[in-house]
Design brief:
alpha/beta; Beta-Lactamase; Rossmann fold; 13 helices; 13 strands
Length: about 350
Amino acid sequence: MNYFQYLKQLLLFTIKLGASDLHLLNGHPPVLRINRKLVPLDKEKKLTSEEVKSLCFSLMSEEQQQLFEKEKEIDFSFDFQGISRFRINIYYELGSVAGALRVVPSKIRSIDQLNLPPELHKLTTAMQGFVLIVGPSSHGKSTTLAAIINEINANRYCNIITIEDPIEYIFEDDKSIISQRELNSDTFSFAKALKATFREDPDVIMVGEMRDQETIATAITAAETGHLVFATLHTNSAGQTINRIVDAFSGDQQNQIRTQLAGSLLAIVSQRLVPSVDGSVVPVCELMFNNQAISNLIRDNKVYEIPLVIDTSYEQGMFSFNRSLAQKIKAGVVRIDDAVNYSTNVRELKKLIAM
């Protein structure tokens, strides 16, 4: 078997069927994820451990193979014939190599094309501050971030620096210039690359993921010192995001971090992809903009009161996840049953639907 040719066939099939992911596992045929459902390619034979390894290794350089054998997992990206890019994670399970390949469209869709809240356009005009795009894994954070960055690229003369693991969307310079740095190939750590940006004259900085205290602290400092900083976290709400950031620091540092965050935070966008009536998925968001009330709550360690401020600040462009869900239901975009499965407060959701 020519493993690379067979893998290219699978990648092409993945794209043609509109799948978001391709999974390669020992003892299974190739499996696609289409509209968040796993679909085995039953016409394909079940793969052996050696076949999966050969398929995965056909995508890696010798250096990447050596790193994988050392670390037991690796993330990288792969450009497929200019049609699409794939974000790839190769890992071990039960002693066998396995692969998860995520489709990254070559064309960056806009905020409006993604059906994201129009309020997100405000974030593209900000001159400085800290913006967090949060949500569970595989719920569109990178895609939302790419749409925001690309709108800045199209409309402003900025020096944009991104730090990613791996690089997913490739930006083409428009009015801005963009430097995209990838972990391992261009830098050894998010924190080190982020510190280096202070000497690289950036206007906008994008951090693919904040994984440690040093990266979080440096990102906040960058926002404080006149930069517009975007980052992601795996959290589910604005309040949880703030607590996660503060909890990353020791007790004697937390008051200082709260003060810094209260002053530098611009907005938190919390999103999930919810099944829609047409069989696809639609982004549903909670949106919080920092104002005086929220700044005071962060500084005074009263984060638990933030949902109330969001609920009562609709005229300022803020809205809760449940309010957003209710709007999608009333518009006929999302079924009630699906909304209930994603809501964190079903009783409140039903009240909003009835209003």
